[in-house]
Amino acid sequence: MTPQNEHFARDIRALVLSMPVAQMLQLRFERIEPGEVDLCLPYQDSLSFRPGQLQATPVFAIADFAAVSAAGTLLPPGWINATVDCSIKYLAAANGTSLLARGRVIQASKLLTVARADVFSCREGQELLCATMLATARNLAPAPQD
User: Residue 96, SS3?
Assistant: First the structure.
């Protein structure tokens, strides 16, 4: 996949990490390539419903951020995107020391981009697939200037 913005990695990182929810979740990018991102979320007691296990909401959030961020790597300069539809399937407990979400574009077009994210519960170098998401992002041109 060919990016339309030579600064896609810088721009996606800056946009996502400027969002308050991304900051609260302590998200960090591990990798950003055209059509692909890897995001990490460290385990936090404040996000668990019982010791050692994250609730479904942060699992959903990292999957959404990863899928839509992957879609964003292919946008022209100044464009942004927003989730318009998604479906997630939870497969195992999110009981690692961190989560790793791998977002990948499936199909990109001018108006919509479809991407997936696989979320892994990580502990001691081992990865366990705990959720998978299919997401559609609406691609939005920059707002007209007055």
Answer: coil
Pairing of strands 98-108, 80-90: unpaired
Among 111, 97, 95, 106, which Cα is nearest to 133's? Answer: 106
CB atoms within 10 A of CB 93: 14
**Encoded tokens for 16:** 């996502």
Q: How far apart are CA 138 and CA 79, in angstroms?
A: 10
Q: How do residues 105-134 score in pLDDT, each as one tens digit?
A: 999 999 999 999 999 999 999 999 999 999
The H-or-E segment that residue 30 falls in is strand 28-33
Neighbour count for residue 105 (Cβ, 10 Å): 21
Helix axes 56-72, 8-17, angle to 10 degrees: 150
CB-CB contact of 88 with 105 (8 Å): no
Tokens of 19: 């969002």
Helical ranges in the chain per DSSP H: 8-17, 20-25, 56-72
What dihedral do alpha carbons 91, 16, 81, 114 form, nearest 10°? -30
Output the average pLDDT for the chain.
96
Q: Which amino acid is at 127?
A: E
Report residue 89: phi and psi, to 5°.
Answer: -120, 125
